[in-house]
Amino acid sequence: MSAASVISVLDDDPYVRAAINNLLESRGYVVRTFASTEEFLRSTDSNDTSCVIADVQMPPINGIDLLTQMRAQGSAPPFIFITAFPDESVRARALKAGATCFLAKPFAASDLMQCLDHALAAGRENLE
Q: What pTM did the predictor assign?
């Protein structure tokens, strides 16, 4: 793990944001949390994030649309999707759009950390 890894957490549930924030900060990551995709896009953190962890179901721009929009603009941080409503068709859309992982809530901290390790490794490979 790089000390400079900035993880952006997007979820409209403040308890989910806080839990993920606490987990990741306890592991040494720099964490930025956002209540919406719009809030994330307005921030400068969208430009220097090492990985995005986003809820799939967020109004008005859902996580998959955010990923697609960022890819179209040339931004390619790895994405991990989390959702309380796991659906195979949504999972397939997320992975086809380029998501690294798709986790159903509630998920184990170890599963999120495994996804994050994989995502950051993939992100480093894309930079090389």
A: 0.92
Backbone angles phi, psi at 116, to 5 degrees: -65, -45
Please report, for the chain, the start and end positions of each structural domain, with discontinuous segments joined by +. Answer: 6-127
Return the bridge partners of 69, or none. none
Number of H helices and number of E strands within the chain? 6, 5
Report the alpha-carbon distance of residue 87 to residue 19 in Å, rounded: 23
- Residue 34 to residues 14, 37, 128, Cα–Cα distance (Å): 9, 7, 29
Q: How far apart are CA 110 and CA 36, in angstroms?
A: 25
How far separated are the first and last CA of the chain, in Å rounded? 16
H or E stretch covering 55: strand 51-55
Instruction: Note the CATH number of domain 6-127.
Output: 3.40.50.2300
Dist. CA 94–CA 87, nearest whole Å: 11
Give the model confidence (pLDDT) of 69-107 as tens digits. 999 988 889 999 999 988 899 999 999 999 999 999 999
